[in-house]
Amino acid sequence: MSKKLIHGLFDDDDILMDGVKAVRQKGYEIDEVYTPFPIHGLDKAMGLKPTRIAYASFAYGVFGLLFASWLTWYMMISDWPQNIGGKPNQTWLQNMLAFTPIMFELTVFMAAHLMVWTYFFKNKLYPGQKAGNPDPRTTDDMFMMEFIFEGDSTELESILKESGAVEVNVKEIKDTTGNQLWFKIPKTAVVLIFALSSLTSCSSSDEPQREPNTVYMPDMYYSVAYEPYSADPNGVDGMEARIPADNTIKRGYVPYEIPDTNEGYQEALDSLKSPIATTDETLKKGEYLYNIYCISCHGINGDGQGKLVQNEKYLGVPSYAPSRLPNITEGSIFHVETYGKNMMGSHASQLTSQERWKVAQHVLKLRSQLK
């Protein structure tokens, strides 16, 4: 028995929805519905199952994560190890945190893009595919139900007309080739895919690559400047390094002319005064800096019982209490911060002159609270 291709056309989306429900109540399966715009609830009315594209998206995301993991290992660990700031890439696990943004981005990239391609091919929207719409009016103002029916279609045609179909067309067909079969990739798409794949190439050599094929932003990869402390034929004495000009200081630097001697310490103790007024703001900043640079040895209260002292990493760290250090001033504290004393090293490279004065203010505050 031959099959029939039945098209029922409607001129209103509400009437179409009523027709879909009426057909479904009679037990007929609708093969396809063509509309010029999306209709809310149409998929449920047709009895369509939920899309499985979300499962495909998850699988694509897992693929992207695995691909990114392999890519970062191959590029940064195996094929072309990078030494960044003196930190060579030894193993992938040691550098996994640095690779996390790449793995995240490729996971999202693969999930999104491959899902879009899956959607296109599932709906036959690939290059070279001809439009499968059986009636161009459904791209304008008409709505159409399509049935591929075998047997007597009199009842179905009657239901469509009673439901408000303005036109019912019946055509004899030999098979369901076309819209109902799984897609075939057209020749133009095959040629396009082959052309894109031919643009990539792989090395057949088993020898590890010693030089990169391409370098992104070579002006940054290959420095145009001389390496520090290297030979420079244009420099004084043939050296790259330069001696600062006479009577100059670097920006933000405040000279400190009291020498690092016992006499210098005594001078700072007796006469050196802070150029910064003590306020709540400076004390708060001093406390903040103290808790970063000093607390591990001197303790949070200034009693010399920091974690390093408690763990016996350092011994003999004095308390700021007047009974322990009777002769210290803000000047002597600043002097010790600048040059260091005994086991304590200089903090001048870590704290600016202003910051050292603020720490000294906080130390005196702690001293006033100790006995």
Explain how this protein is built.
- This protein is of the alpha+beta class and 371 residues long.
- Helix 12 packs across helix 13 (353-369).
- It folds into 2 domains: 1-191, no CATH class; 262-369, Orthogonal Bundle (Cytochrome Bc1 Complex, Chain D, domain 2), CATH 1.10.760.
- The chain has a 4-stranded antiparallel β-sheet with strand order 2-5-1-6. A two-stranded antiparallel ribbon has the order 3-4.
- Mean pLDDT is 84; it is low at 176-183.
- The protein has 13 helices and 6 strands.
- The protein starts with a strand and ends with a helix.
- It is elongated.
- The longest helix is centred in the N-terminal third of the chain and has 27 residues, at 53-79.
What does the main sheet amount to?
Answer: 4 strands, antiparallel
- In percent terms, what proportion of residues is strand? 5-15%
* Secondary structure category: alpha+beta
In helices, the fraction of residues equals 40-55%
Spatial order of the strands in the main sheet? 2-5-1-6
Output the radius of gyration: 40 Å
* SSE topology string: EHEHHEEHEHEHHHHHHHH
Terminus-to-terminus distance: 109 Å
β-strand number: 6
Low-confidence stretches: 176-183
Number of domains: 2
* Count of helical regions: 13
What is the general shape? elongated
Average pLDDT level? 84
Q: Could you outline the blueprint of secondary structure elements for this entry?
A:
Blueprint: E1 3-10, H1 13-25, E2 32-34, H2 42-46, H3 53-79, E3 83-84, E4 87-88, H4 96-122, E5 143-150, H5 154-162, E6 167-173, H6 187-197, H7 218-221, H8 262-271, H9 280-293, H10 295-298, H11 307-310, H12 330-339, H13 353-369
Helix pairs in contact: 3-4, 8-12, 9-13, 12-13
